[in-house]
Amino acid sequence: MPYVVVLMECATCKRRNYATTKPEKRKTDKLVLKKYCSWCKKHQEHKETKK
User: Which of 10, 20, 31, 47 could potentially form a cystine with 37 if both were Cys, beta carbons 3.0 to 4.6 Å apart?
Assistant: First the structure.
């Protein structure tokens, strides 16, 4: 199964902090993860963005 690289953007400060992969089949679903934002200095929701 091929994977595609997606960038994760902080919902608060809008900085792109992380890159991760997801299966190409799930292209329609937007990925949302709670990750640590080094700019906000706390855990925030990070949403999938375009490259």
Answer: 10
